[in-house]
């Protein structure tokens, strides 16, 4: 496998792996990735709150969270495809530029789909009977809230700034607000 001029292999490129972005990516891509990450985790947090222990024990919750992640990802990508066509530059864009824009949208939207993997894995543990469904539901909710809670620290890291307690507290507040949104969504829509 070949290396680039800086000694890294193409496999190390976060764009190729779909991992979290590095500080050297353009700010717009990092913003899109963070937006997708927060949105995906809040959406899955709502789904994790909405399922009941019976759904977890019978496996329906596994499919519910996976479907929520995948379908939200597809809706997000579709919305961006539609938005890419807006204006003169969007309509007149060459096919190669359209494909590059779509690759970027899919890459930065991946956190929406991947947010469902941890809750689904936890629900599988309960589905096969290794641990109680209520424990796994609580674990899924806590994991998603913690993922959201670390966004403040991630933003500082992506910005190349030193990590601070203030960023951690901002993430904790974001997690609490996100939990409130998820809980309100379940109350108002189920």
Descriptive report:
The chain is an all-alpha fold and 190 residues long. It has one domain (25-189). The chain has ten helices and no strands. The chain has helices spanning 14-17, 27-50, 53-57, 60-84, 87-92, 95-114, 117-127, 133-149, 151-159, 165-189. The radius of gyration is 19 Å and the shape is globular. Mean pLDDT is 84; it is low at 1-18. The chain crosses the membrane at residues 61-87, 108-128, 134-153, 165-188. Keywords: Membrane, Transmembrane, Transmembrane helix.
Fill in the keyword field for this structure.
transmembrane helix; 190 residues; transmembrane; Integral membrane protein; 10 helices; mainly alpha; membrane
Question: β content, as a range?
Answer: under 5%
The global form is: globular
**How many helical elements?**
10
Helix content: over 70%
Rg is: 19 Å
Question: Ranges with pLDDT <50 over ≥5 residues?
Answer: 1-18
Q: What structural class results from the helix and strand content?
A: mainly alpha
Q: How would you name the oligomeric state of the polypeptide chains in this document? A: single chain
How many domains is the backbone divided into? 1
Question: How many individual β-strands?
Answer: 0
Order of SSEs: HHHHHHHHHH
User: Can you give the mean pLDDT?
Assistant: 84
What composes the largest sheet? none
Transmembrane segments: 61-87, 108-128, 134-153, 165-188
Region (Disordered): 1-27
Protein name: Integral membrane protein
Keywords: Membrane, Transmembrane, Transmembrane helix
């Amino acid at each position: 496998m070949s290396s680039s001029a800086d000694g890294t292999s193409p496999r190390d490129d976060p764009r190729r792996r779909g991992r979290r972005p590095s500080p050297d990516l353009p700010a717009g891509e990092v913003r899109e990735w963070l937006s997708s990450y927060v949105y995906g985790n809040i959406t899955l947090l709502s789904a994790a709150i909405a399922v009941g222990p019976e759904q977890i024990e019978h496996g329906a919750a596994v499919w519910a969270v996976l479907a929520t992640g995948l379908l939200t990802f597809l809706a997000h990508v579709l919305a961006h495809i539609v938005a890419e066509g807006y204006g003169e530059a969007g309509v007149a864009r060459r096919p190669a530029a359209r494909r590059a824009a779509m690759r970027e949208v899919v890459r930065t939207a991946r956190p929406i789909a991947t947010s469902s993997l941890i809750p689904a894995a936890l629900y599988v543990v309960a589905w096969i009977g290794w641990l109680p469904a209520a424990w796994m539901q609580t674990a899924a909710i806590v994991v998603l809230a913690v993922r959201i809670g670390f966004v403040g620290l991630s933003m500082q890291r992506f910005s190349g700034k030193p990590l601070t307690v203030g960023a951690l507290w901002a993430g904790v507040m974001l997690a609490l607000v996100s939990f409130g949104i998820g809980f309100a969504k379940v109350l108002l829509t189920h």
